[in-house]
Design goal:
single chain, 173 residues, alpha+beta, seven-stranded mixed β-sheet, 3 helices, 17% helix
Length: 173
């Protein structure tokens, strides 16, 4: 239908293939940071800290709802990386992935996620200090985790990341 995509051109005067209004199920543009140490990645559990409103737009209800599971350090697209306080990391170029699905919170409506996925490696021996806005940070092997251990559907993002890594290396995850 005219004015409903598929190109991300958000404007009342977008061309026919651009969006003139948001999808009914919403859209998220996120930067996802996979901090790696060997086969493990750094995951966190949200603290019920108001800093999340500035860091990722998460209100108290979202923080409490998703604070029970593990999440990848991620934020809505904004200037600067503020989720972690680790210095000296080496970063890859961002890779863009998308997902278009019907979210459980909006039955009958479609949601678009656009992820800018970045791999990062901390300096050898560097510890990951836990910022106040996290209840916990931990190094986890995503190959041994159950989907139910994640929050905010991050199991889907991790699965996509692992699949791409396996394709690049030519070996199973």
């Amino acid at each position: 239908m005219v004015g409903e995509g598929p190109f991300l051109w958000l404007s009342p005067s977008a061309p026919p293939a651009g969006f003139r209004r948001l999808l009914h199920g919403g859209m998220c543009l996120s930067v996802v940071l996979f901090v790696r140490r060997g086969k493990r990645i750094l995951l966190g559990r949200y603290a019920d800290d108001p800093a999340w409103e500035v860091l990722a737009g998460l209100d108290p209800e979202w923080r409490r709802l998703h604070g029970r599971g593990w999440t990848i350090p991620a934020t809505q697209v904004k200037f600067g990386e503020e989720i972690l306080t680790m210095r000296g990391m080496r970063y890859t170029e961002p890779r863009v992935e998308t997902d278009y699905y019907e979210p459980a919170r909006s039955p009958g409506q479609m949601h678009l996620d656009v992820w800018f996925i970045v791999d990062a490696v901390p300096p050898r021996g560097a510890e990951a200090p836990t910022p106040a806005w996290y209840a916990e940070l931990a190094w986890k092997d995503p190959r041994t985790m159950q989907a139910s251990e994640y929050a905010r559907s991050h199991e889907d993002v991790v699965a996509r990341w692992m699949q791409r890594r396996a394709l690049r290396s030519g070996s199973p995850t």
